[in-house]
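#help-structures
NK: newbie question, is this the right format to request a structure? protein is MoxR-like ATPase
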Amino acid sequence: MNDHAQRPPAEIRFAGELARLREHDTDDRPPGWALSLRAARRFVLGDETLGISRKFVGDPSLIDRSLVTLATNRGLMLVGEPGTAKSLLSELLAAAVSGTSTLTVQGGAATTEDQIKYSWNYALLVAEGPSTRSLVAAPLLRGMAEGKVVRFEEITRCPLEVQDCLLSPLSDRVLSVPELSGPESMVFAQEGFTVIATANTRDRGVNEMSAALKRRFNFETVFPIADFETELALVEAEALALLKRSGVTAPPRRDVLEVLVTTFRELRQGQTARGDATDRLSGVMSTAEAVSVAHAVGLRGWFLRGEPGTAADLVSCLAGTAAKDNHEDLAKLRRYLERRRHGDQWKALYEARHLLPG
C-alpha cells in the first residue's frame, strides 16, 4: 500500500506492533487465530513494555468479553450510539484475530446477498458455465474459506431478508453454492472464521433483526467515554494526527479543545458540568464528531490565516455538526452559547455566535 492512502487498514497502520506481539506471543492460541487472547488484548488496549499503543478507550472488560465470544465461534454484535468507535473496535479485533480487517460488508438499503456471499463473472459464466473460475467470492465466502473474521458494518441498515443470509454460515458453518455441483457446491467454514457486526441505536430507518439471527450473536454495548479528561486526551491525540496528515504543523490549542469537548458533552447529556439543564440537540454529539470538528478548526485556522484555530473557528465548524437533523438545533446551540459566556474562551464563543447561519 502506498504512502498516500488516506486511511490504511489497522494491519498496515500497526504492522510493526502486530509483528512484535507475534514474536513475543508464547500463549496458546484458539484454532485459526493469528494471536493469543492475551496478545490480542494487548494490541487493542496497549502494552508499554512492548511499545504497543492503546487504540481503544473504553472498558477493558468489554474487550475481554468480545475476544472470548470470538473464540467460541459465535458472532459478535457491537451496538451503541454513533461515534462510539464500534467500527474501530471491530477493525482492531479482526486485525488481531485474523491479521486482516478488510473482509468487510458495508450495510445499507442497497446491499444485496451478492455483495455478502458471492457473485459471478458474467463473461466467463456465459462462455464456460458455472465454475470456480467464474465465481467471484465476496467477503463472507472468502472469510469462511480462509478462516478469517468477516466484518459486517451497520447490519441493521440492510433489509431483513438480506441479513438472514447469515443464518446458515453462523449456525451450520457452511455456505451453499447451488450453481456448482459436487464438493465445490459447499464451502465449509475453516478454523478462525467468525463474524463481527455493528449496529447503532440512534439512526432512523433501521431494520429490526430477526430473532433467529439475534440468537447467533452475543451482543455487547459500546458506551460513550464517561471521563472528561480521557475524552479530551483522545480528541487532542486524534485531531493532532489528522492535522499532521493534512499538512498542518501547528498543534490544536488546548483551551479551544477543552471548550469543544465540554460543549459536546453538555449538549449530549442535556446538562452542564454545574448541573444546570440545557437543551439536548437532536444530532449525535459524539467523540468522533468532536474529533472531526477539531480537525476542521485546525484546518480553517492554518490554511486561512496561518495560525491554530480559534474560538470563532470553532463556532463556524460547530454549525455543520449541530444542524444535520433539525434546523432548530442551531437556535438551541445559540442559546447554549449565550448561557455559557463566562470565561475567556466561552466569552469568545459567545461573541462569535453571529457566525452561526440563520
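mod (FA): yep, format's fine, and the C-alpha cells are attached above. The radius of gyration is 23 Å.
NK: thank you!
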